[in-house]
Amino acid sequence: MDAVAAGSQGLRMSSFRENGATGTRDILTSPSCWQYAVLLNRFNYPFELEKDLHLKGYHSLFQGSLPYYPKSMKCYLSRTPHRMPSERHRIGNLKKYYLLNAASLLPVLALELRDGEKVLDLCAGPGGKSIALLQCAYPGYLHCNEHDGLRLRWLRETLESFIPQPLVNVIKVSELDGREMGDAQPETFDKVLVDAPCSNDRSWLFSSDSQNAACRISQRRNLPLLQIELLRSAIKALRPGGLLVYSTCTLSKAENQDVISEVLNSYSNIMPVDIKEMARTCSQDFTFAPTGQECGLLVIPDKGKAWGPMYVAKLKKSWTT
Question: Is 249 a catalytic residue?
Answer without folding.
Answer: yes
